[in-house]
Design brief:
The complex is a heterodimer of chains A (382) and B (271). Chain A has 10 helices and 10 strands. Chain A has helices at residues 7-34, 39-47, 66-79, 81-101, 104-115, 231-267, 279-307, 313-338, 348-356, 366-377, and strands at residues 121-124, 140-144, 147-158, 165-171, 181-187, 193-198, 209-220, 224-225, 269-270, 273-274. Chain A starts with 6 loop residues before the first helix and ends in a 5-residue tail after the last helix. Chain B has 271 residues and is of the alpha/beta class. Chain B has one domain (3-225): Rossmann fold, CATH 3.40.50. Helices cover 28% and strands 25% of the residues of chain B. A 9-stranded mixed β-sheet of chain B has the order 11-10-9-12-8-1-6-7-13, with helices on both faces. Classes of the chains: A alpha+beta (382), B alpha/beta (271). Bound molecules: flavin-adenine dinucleotide (FAD).
């Protein structure tokens, strides 16, 4: 078993560390406060081929591997969870399904500009009545001649009002339930594509989460992704990969909080000793460190399986489930180690603790991950 | 017509972490991360800016050092250089600045004779030695004009126009090309490598492999002028000066402390 990273992966990690320290860390607290979407950061990541790290060169991507991409997400998340969501979106939630299920024409038209960093893409599945139970889609797309007419709405969509293109899941045949769902590639500037409410959030506050409303929106027939009825399958497969990215993000958030905590306990003195010298606190550190490493190994393993063309639905669910729990646990403890100072916005752990929570919710809640894990583990019969 | 540029870069220990062994008086290099010398990255960036601006620019990065120095050459290739050459040979070990510049200049001359060289960039100085000698020495060896401390550069085809930093201002200088320029950090902000190039340059089957030249590839090299024996200077001792002065900690009411502080700063004629 080879646990070492390749020369390329190490280099990606190193460059991303520099990039994060110089370009991202300085704005992290500010975009949390102002809720401003980090457009400039996104553009920098696009220009350097970071946001298209795993996409093939053939379409203008960086031609890297998935693990390198997840490593980049982890590095960014150490300092700014918002910026890491922005990075996690385009390639894995929009680029990947087009690459995997799209026609050559769709790839040229949408994947190429995403890979070349000219546009950014999102993924819209969730609806007010269809959260964990994504099958309850109310958004409808009806075929009329050479185009579909879409009506309905989506909520909590990352990149609303910012991203240029979305994969949208909608019902094309109600009688078939989940087999009646289809996926579409939709330009955000299509007439009838309306941006609704932008949410005010607990964490990842700069990431623009909002409502998308579709009113008699005309979508060319050729923008159907895959076949009619494949929408649910495409959505679930997309989330399988997306979850590894979220696991990497969660590990990054946890590691960032850990780093801050370690620094703090080296400095703070109480009872005449540095905090680091209290055994009671050392035990926190030991637990935090163990969990972070376990979480990291889980996402590395899921990435390995994905890269080697092996099934990874269960492993990506386990990675996300465990890593998000770790992020919540570690950031909480990091605040604890800071005492009252950790509760203040002057220290980054305050933000990290708020940011961590989202990793237990989006791309399937922890409960949903457990459903996936259990379903794979408890097979129908032996 | 191709603009041919060479950039000389050096791998150095990350001096933020370097300590001196009090017993032997040498740098403790063990476990210390190495980096590309910061001023050299500015040199690299300036070359890349020319490449951005003009259609036909070829950048060759060149470094003398042990095989580990391929690391920074790859980094420079990932930033956008076209060709990378490592000058590495046992015979080069122990070279001081003069011997180093002799070796670099010999390699540069070889490139110059084959494809021409319009600009040779060096960083102003390396953070491990801080001598700032190698750039000017290369110019001397190659009998080229040199402008050091470049803080702004305009390339005008036949010549360059440069703002050369001084302690409290700058000089405006022009020079004919070919020319040697040494760069400072005010000149630009070095770019990050593009991810695609990382995958092209690093790894098992790089698209642009680093070339290694040994002494055999430089037949013009005079063996008496290189390595430890060809080095007229020696570092006899490196040490950290003992701090004989002590800080004073003022205690008490803020206003009172501030008052004492101002008074003593006035006494020392700092205020
Ligand atoms: C910041 C943010 C960004 C988001 N970005 C996107 C995006 O880009 N695209 C997108 O499509 N969606 C996005 N979402 C939506 C997200 O994926 C959903 O919020 C999530 O799937 C949960 O759905 P829900 O909010 O409707 O909760 P519900 O499904 O109503 O869940 C409520 C609670 O009940 C639990 N629960 C539900 N069913 C079961 C069950 N059968 N067994 C046990 N427990 C259960 C859940 O786990 C949860 O704890 C985003 C959400 C947020 C907050």
């Amino acid at each position: 078993m080879d646990f070492s990273l390749t020369e390329q992966e190490i280099m990606v990690q190193k460059v991303m560390r520099d990039f994060t320290e110089n370009e991202i860390e300085p704005i992290a607290a500010e975009i949390d406060e102002t809720e401003e979407f980090p457009q400039k950061t996104l553009e920098k990541m696009q220009k350097l081929g970071i946001s298209s790290l795993p996409l093939p060169k053939k379409y203008g991507g960086s031609g890297g591997n998935y693990l390198a991409y997840y490593l980049a997400i982890e590095e960014v998340a150490k300092k700014c969870a918002t910026s890491s969501v922005v990075l996690a979106g385009s390639a894995s939630l929009c680029g990947w399904p087009i690459l995997t299920f799209g026609t050559e024409v769709q790839k040229e038209k949408y994947l190429r500009p995403i890979a070349e960093g000219k546009i950014a893409g999102g993924f819209a599945l969730t609806e007010p009545g269809a959260g964990s139970d994504a099958s309850m889609q109310r958004t409808v797309a009806e075929l009329k001649g050479d185009h579909y007419i879409m009506n309905g709405s989506k909520c909590f969509i990352t990149g609303a009002g910012v991203f240029d293109v979305f994969i949208i899941i909608a019902m094309t045949d109600k009688s078939k339930k989940t087999r009646g769902l289809s996926a579409f590639i939709v330009d955000a500037n299509t007439p009838g594509f309306i941006i609704g409410k932008i949410e005010n959030k607990m964490g990842i506050r700069g990431s623009a989460t909002g409502e998308l409303i579709f009113q008699d929106m005309k979508i060319p027939k050729e923008n159907l992704l895959g076949k009619e009825g494949e929408g649910f399958h495409i959505a679930m497969k997309t989330l399988d990969g997306g979850r590894i990215a979220i696991a990497a993000q969660a590990v990054g958030i946890a590691q960032g909080a850990m780093d801050a905590a370690i620094q703090y306990i080296h400095e703070r003195v109480q009872f005449g000793r540095k905090l680091k010298d209290f055994q009671g606190l050392q035990w926190y550190i030991a637990e935090m460190e163990t969990e972070i490493n376990a979480a990291r190994n889980l996402y590395y393993h899921a990435a390995y399986l994905k890269e080697h063309g092996k099934p990874y639905s269960k492993e990506s669910a386990m990675a996300k489930f465990f890593a998000s729990k770790t992020a919540v646990f570690v950031t909480n403890k990091a605040v604890q180690l800071h005492g009252g100072y950790g509760y203040m916005k002057d220290y980054p752990v305050e933000r990290m603790m708020r940011d961590a929570k989202i990793t237990e919710i989006y791309e399937g809640t922890s409960e949903v991950q457990k459903m996936v894990i259990a379903a794979h583990t408890i097979k129908p019969k032996l | 017509m191709t603009i041919n540029i060479a950039v000389c870069i050096k791998q150095v220990p990350n001096t933020n972490q370097v300590k001196i062994d009090k017993k032997t008086g040498t740098l403790i290099r063990k476990g210390i991360k190495t980096i590309c010398n910061p001023d050299d990255k500015n040199a690299m960036e300036e070359a890349l800016k020319l490449k951005d601006k003009y259609d036909d620019v070829k950048i060759t990065v060149i470094s003398m050092g042990p095989s580990q120095a391929t690391e920074i050459i790859k980094e420079a290739l990932a930033m956008g250089a076209d060709r990378g050459i490592l000058l590495s040979d046992r015979k080069f070990a122990g070279s001081d600045t003069l011997a180093t510049s002799t070796i670099l200049a010999t390699a540069l001359r070889k490139i110059q004779e084959k494809e021409g060289l319009d600009i040779i960039f060096c960083g102003r100085q390396a953070i491990d030695g801080d001598t700032a000698q190698v750039g000017p020495q290369i110019a001397q060896h190659l009998d080229l004009p040199i402008i050091s401390y470049v803080q702004e550069l305009k390339y005008l085809g036949e010549k360059v126009q440069v703002k050369r930093a001084l302690e409290n201002g700058y000089m405006q200088i022009e020079a004919q090309i070919p020319v040697v320029l040494t760069t400072i950090s005010d000149l630009n902000k070095p770019r990050y490598p593009h991810m695609r190039r990382i995958f092209d340059v690093f790894g098992k089957n790089p698209v642009i492999p680093v070339e290694t030249w040994t002494a055999d590839d430089l037949p013009d090299l005079d063996n008496t002028q290189i390595g430890l024996n060809g080095s007229p200077t020696r570092v006899i001792k490196t040490y950290t000066p003992d701090r004989t002065f002590k800080g004073e900690i003022l205690e008490g009411e803020t206003a009172h402390v501030a008052h004492i502080l101002i008074e003593s700063l006035k006494q020392k004629q700092i205020l």
